[in-house]
Amino acid sequence: MAKTVLKVRVFGGTPPFSLKVMLFKGEEVIKNLGKPGSFDLTLDDLSGNYSLLVSGPNPLSADKKTVISLETYEIKLSPDSDPNPATRTGKAYLVQYFFTA
Amino acid sequence: MTNKYMGRVIAAAGLVMLPGFTMLAQVSLKNIASADAKKQSENNVRTVNDLKTGNWQNVISSFLQLSFTDLAGDNKALNFKAGLFALKAKADSNLLLDHNYVRQKFSRNFQFDFSLKLDTGYHFKGLQAGFTWAIINKRDSTVISFANTALDNYYSAAQEALQIAAVRFRNSLLDAGGAIPAAKQGLFNEVKAKINKVLDEKGFVAKASYPAEFQPFLDDSFNKKLEIADSLFAGELAKVRIAPLLTLSVNSTFQNKDRAFSNGAARVVYLQGIKTKRSKTELDIRSSLTIKDTLVVTTQRRSNFNTSAGINFALLESGTGKSIVEFKPYFEYNSILSKLYSGEKKDVFMAIADLRIRVFENFWLPFTLKYDLDKGRFFGFLDIEFNFGAFKKQK
Q1: Which among B42, B62, B145 is the top mutation candidate for probing chain A, defined by the most A β-carbons within 10 Å of its own β-carbon?
Q2: Chain B residues within 8 A of A13 when measuring between CB atoms
Q3: Is residue B230 classed as helix, strand or coil in its secondary structure?
Q4: Concatenated DSSP letters for B154-192?
Q5: B164 to chain A: which residues are within 8 Å by CB?
Q6: Which of A38, A60, A87 to probe by mutation at the B interface, max B CB count within 10 Å?
Q7: Residues of A with CB below 8 A from B192's CB?
Q8: Do A90 and B159 touch (CB under 8 A)?
Q9: How far is A44 from chain B (nearest CA, A)?
Q10: Which of B66, B176, B242, B323 is geometrically suited to a Cys-Cys bond with B314, CB 3.0 to 4.6 A?
Q11: Distance from C-alpha of B225 to C-alpha of B151, rounded to nearest angstrom
């Protein structure tokens, strides 16, 4: 069984509302979490194909930025995934990772 | 800003003591926080800075300001203003991380400034230095969080619907082997790029803003969830915008000629929004104590107390909620506490009206009209303010 760690770092203030993290296997929701700010999330016991999506608002500041990264030591990202790490500086974002464990 | 204002008053005393209406031009260049101007319907994640009035912008700002004043006159000045946090973050970018950012409350609310005074030949004439501390600042939108509130629940549900739609859309393109075939890769990339662009520029917005190919995958209740969340969010932002702001500014000036203290000033500003239907009205109270060396026969140290109270109205707003025309009528009381000049009145009451017009996004044209209640004289001023934020890449 493989594992990976998702890291989300928010810069320039606090997000005005929660970030959303969802892990799917096919269309089945494996994890569904809300987070108020920066966090690390370990995903273990992984086997098969997954979709990991992270969305949220950036802080209400000029220096707003969110950096999302996923450890790939034990998983393989699909080429149609977003860049890893992904940096988002707009008002809101949706980052999509597709991987095989 | 205190000294700029005082400089204006001093200039008025020397140059514009004529009955009637006279204009004095002054150019100041300012860099003030700003955000995108987008239509409200397209822009649901809005900052409080979006809604700042010019009156508020001039009290405290969190960015670097550089200004040149009185370029054509005898009192040229190069002014620099910086937030303590902005400088600390330049040295240690980790301070920008949310967990660290919230702990930097003092730094985020403290700014210092200095001004280099030059004569007509651009020779060093003096130095002015000071600070502004926002003792109470309930308007800092960068640290507001509505996590785990009703508002958050609606946004969370909307985000969940968006993520499920994104997964379903991709799954609809997969072949039997679980990969997106080459023929459909272009469509996937294009739709994903469009979604990213919408979120980046507008935030979480209604279904119609997303690509047509993606819309059928979005839950029918998506718009409703967003509508409720946006409505609650707008209400919370409105509360933040009218929250109290209390600042203390202290500064002093040193003259090169005497190599000594020349003057000092302390100023307190209190702004409190007044809840109205339009919610763009603000109580504005300011007081200052000034100590200034003057040379008549011998050097004397004069002290002066000034206080004003008025209400700032946003008369006209753009579709985005930004004020375009502001009007601030107020009363000002000025008292010379020591070293009164011969023939000078100790106490002066003025009725003043500031009219401020936003010409461009970051370009204000303020007019000040003063009326001396005792002497029955008018004084008029024209300022031009430009915000360097216009050059900042905005998201």
Answers
A1: B145
A2: 98, 101, 141-143
A3: helix
A4: HHHHHHHHHHHHHHHHHHHH--TTSS--HHHHHHHHHHH
A5: 22, 27, 29
A6: A60
A7: 96
A8: no
A9: 21
A10: B323
A11: 10
Q: Which residues pair with A68 in a beta bridge?
A: A8, A86
DSSP for chain A, written as a single string: -EEEEEEEEEESS--SS-EEEEEEETTEEEEEEEESS-EEEEEEEE-SEEEEEEEEEPPSSTT-EEEEEE--SS-EE-TTSPPSSEEE-SSEEEEEEEEE-
Q: Cα–Cα distance between A75 and B315 in angstroms, integer?
A: 59
C-alpha span between B86 and B331 (Å, rounded): 35
Quote the pTM value: 0.75
**CA separation for the pair B166, A98 (Å, rounded):** 12
A83's tokens:
């860049």
Give strand pairing partners of A95: A54
CA A71 to chain centre: 11
What distance in Å separates residue A14's CA from the closest CA in chain B? 5
CB atoms B145 and A37 under 8 Å? yes
The H or E element containing residue B137 is strand B124-137
CB atoms within 10 A of CB B20: 9
B166 close to A (CB below 8 A): yes
Interface test with chain B among A61, A82, A93, by most B beta carbons within 10 Å: A61
Q: Enter the ipTM.
A: 0.97
CB contact under 8 Å between A92 and B166, yes or no, is no
Min Cα–Cα distance to chain B from A68, Å? 13
In sequence order, which residues have a C-beta less than 8 Å from that of residue B340 and are 6 or more positions away? B346
Q: pLDDT tens digits, chain B, 395 residues: what are they?
A: 333 333 332 222 222 222 222 222 222 323 322 333 333 333 333 334 444 555 555 454 455 667 777 777 777 888 888 889 988 988 999 999 999 999 999 999 999 888 888 888 888 888 889 999 999 999 899 999 999 999 999 999 999 999 999 999 999 999 988 889 999 999 999 999 999 999 999 999 999 999 999 999 999 899 999 999 999 999 998 888 889 999 999 988 887 766 666 788 999 999 999 877 665 788 999 999 998 876 655 667 788 999 999 999 888 877 766 788 889 999 999 999 888 888 888 898 888 888 888 877 667 787 888 887 777 776 666 555 444 443 344 33
Question: Residue A38: its chain B contacts at CB < 8 A?
Answer: 97-99
